[in-house]
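Q: I'm writing up a methods section and want to include an example of the input and output format. Could you take the sequence below and give the corresponding predicted structure tokens, formatted cleanly so I can copy it straight into the document?
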Amino acid sequence: MRVLLLLLFISFQIVAQEPGDVDYIFTSLQQANERPEVVYHLNLSRQKLEEFPTNLRRFKNLRTLDLSKNRISMLPAEVGQLVHLQSLILSKNKIVILPPQLAKLKQLQVFDLAKNDVKVIPREIGELTALEKLDVWSNNVQEVHENISKLKQLKALDLQGMLFSDEMKQKIAEWLPTTEIQFSGGCGCGF
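A: Here is the clean output for your methods example:
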């Protein structure tokens, strides 16, 4: 009986690893393009990509997208077509500007922008009402739009690695009273 249960358990794990399974993670754009209707998770990290893949809109069921550790400098307007995304990982790229079309990602829960060169957290961020985690660690953020206060589900905001004035820190804390916010230590420089 134990052997039968073990075989059932092993066969279930093998089936769960096939392309088309909701938990399967595609790691090749070529492989994903062969069956776009079954792509739920796509990990293209460390692929030396210099541009955001524009054909991603073909993946109508895409839930998680990891483009971390590439060389992407711009997010195109097409990113707004990924309306089912729940997790968008863009850490360790060269992104400077976030396009307004991000506002269309209403199901986004995790947005990781760590180690880019983002200068402004724009007004559109407030439209991501399902957002629970926003990581902007080690960017060059100089402005945070007050629409961030609309993020009532936001549990964690990482703003470490940047210098904000005490006044700005206080504003952000007031805008997000139930969010755990991480700031770097102050410099006392009034910046």
